[in-house]
Specification:
The chain has 349 residues and is of the alpha+beta class. It has 3 domains: 2-83, Winged helix-like DNA-binding domain superfamily/Winged helix DNA-binding domain (Arc Repressor Mutant, subunit A), CATH 1.10.10.10; 91-132 and 236-346, Beta-Lactamase (2-Layer Sandwich), CATH 3.30.450; 135-225, Heat-inducible transcription repressor hrca homolog, domain 3 (Enolase-like, domain 1). The chain is 47% helix and 19% strand. The chain has 14 helices and 10 strands. It has a 5-stranded antiparallel sheet with strand order 7-3-10-9-8, with helices on both faces. Strands 4-5-6 form a 3-stranded antiparallel sheet. The longest helix has 19 residues, at 328-346. The radius of gyration is 26 Å and the shape is elongated.
Length: 349
Amino acid sequence: MKWQVELSIRDREILVALVRQFIASGCPVGSKALAAKLPEQLSSATIRSILVELEECGFLMQPHVSAGRIPTEKAYRFYVDRMVSGARLSPATERYIDQGLSADGDRLERLMAKASRMLSEVSRNVGLVLAPALEEKLLEHIKFVNLPDHRVLVVIVSKPDLVENRVVHLDDEFTQQELDQSADFLNAEFHGWSLGTIRLEVFKRMEQDKILCDRLLKNVATLFMWGALSEEEADLLFVDGTAKILESPEYEDVQKIKQLVKTLEEKGKLARILAACLQIPEAGVRILIGRENAEKQMHNCTLVVAPLHYRNRAVGALGVVGPTRMEYDRAISTVDYVAHLCSRLLSLN
């Protein structure tokens, strides 16, 4: 970007020092406070002159005439892009996360809940985890069990490490023999396929052979395609630590609190925000600062998010949300570490 090239080394040092000090204190930063932090000895007058230039370039703003300055979203973006890359957690913190997320035979839901809690605890923000959708998982085994009142219990064993039990309500009535035949067909034909791909393939086969489409394939479509894979996005989202974000001085404004709490309560909307990260081909951590977030209620927040992988496939996402005055080094390194660890745990089997 043009402004990255035009900033001198001295300008960059002062801007970074101001961002760091504001993140630490939450108070507007003045020239005298900056002078004490800079490696180079500069007069307050020189620093004030540079601060004026940075403000004119859109990096800083002054809440009051007599106050110091605070970073804008542009300053945070500069700081993240230029200064935070390669940040790492301490070895002790990494060990703490390792112990907290050790698999111990946990079901997927428990691992995701523990991950959201760990993200919140370590980053001191709200932890978010979008668990892998059932359609993204790979079929290991499926079984259908006849129940009274036109109901069928669907038991799906899939990778990564998940057993799903769902009751499907049907208009048609099936015998247990028909259910067993349908399950045997799926297990033989589609072992190792993603459940979403199986759905498409069954419909494709039915379309290619409309006249000869036999009862078995129709039974499979009825049992497996329309009821077993339905999920609400909100059911896949784990949120932890909402109270932490409300402790920030940025949220002393009651209206801001109401907007944020409403957004955090709308799990479907949050799930879609996290799911959007799966549409980006590049792996790794993404940072959305302030108005870079599509949702208006999150314009006072920063979202740090990374994909979850099962082997080489992105199947979910996790991250943290907090105020724009966030400890970016800690938040980014926490999200990156937890994402890699959870992806490794998911891919063990």
